[in-house]
Each structure stands twice: as structure tokens, then as C-alpha cells.
Design a protein that fits this description.
Layout: H1 2-15, H2 17-24, E1 31-39, E2 42-50, E3 63-65, E4 72-73, H3 83-100, E5 109-114, E6 119-121
Parallel strand pairs: 1-5
Antiparallel strand pairs: 1-2, 2-3, 2-4, 5-6
Helix pairs in contact: 1-3
Length: 123
């Protein structure tokens, strides 16, 4: 399962590609957060867009955008993964995404995190 997590995250981002392209054209969204949370049937991956960013956790409550399909489960096997591993893998994949598609994220603040912990600003 560990080897598959990065591939699963990459696949989800590919599925969000058209939503992310349309988001890049909007001027009201200034920050996006790629996140994961542990639910009863495994970790789920989500994306949220925000109209403001204060550098503290409060901006995360002001969600104003999400892709058409969100909160995508990695399945019950992901429950066996350590949360730190999930976070590190998510961060690694998103950093690669920023390198691969810089134009799409040019105007956005980009963060990653688990829902029950601090986020990390990548850009």
C-alpha cells in the first residue's frame, strides 16, 4: 500500500486537472489546500480553495471553492499507513505537481496538511 499512495494522489490530481485549470482563471481564490483526513474507511484526499489567507489556521474555515469531485478515499488498506507517512507522501507529490505545472499555481498560495494538524505552506 505504501508504494501505491503517491500514485493514488497523482491520479486524483489528474482527475482534478480541469477543475484546477478553471480555478487558475479565477481572481477571487488566493489560496488552496491539499489535505488528507482519516475517516472510518481509510484516508481521504481533498482540495479546498479560499478567498483569503491570514497565515494562521483561521483561513481554512473560509472555504469558497472545491473541485467537482472531492474527498476521494484511498480505501481501507490506507488505514494501515502511519499519518506522518501520509503527510510526507502528500507533500512530496504536491511539490512535484508545483514543479510540473507552475503556470497553474502561479497566483495561488499552496498548502498541504492533515485535517487534524498544522498545514505547511509550499508556495
Amino acid at each position: 500500500m505504501k508504494e501505491e499512495l503517491a500514485n493514488q494522489i497523482t491520479t486524483v490530481i489528474s482527475e482534478w486537472r480541469s477543475d484546477l485549470h478553471s480555478l487558475a482563471e479565477r481572481t477571487d481564490i488566493v489560496a488552496i489546500n491539499f489535505g488528507a483526513l482519516k475517516v472510518f474507511d481509510g484516508y481521504a484526499f481533498y482540495l479546498s480553495g479560499h478567498t483569503w489567507f491570514d497565515g494562521h489556521d483561521l483561513w481554512l474555515f473560509g472555504e469558497a471553492w472545491e473541485p467537482s469531485k472531492n474527498y476521494i478515499s484511498f480505501g481501507p488498506d490506507s488505514l494501515n499507513l502511519e499519518r506522518l507517512y501520509v503527510l510526507e507522501t502528500l507533500e512530496k507529490v504536491i511539490k512535484n505537481e508545483l514543479i510540473q505545472s507552475p503556470k497553474m499555481y502561479k497566483k495561488l498560495i499552496v498548502t498541504v496538511g492533515l485535517v487534524d494538524s498544522d498545514y505547511k505552506r509550499l508556495k
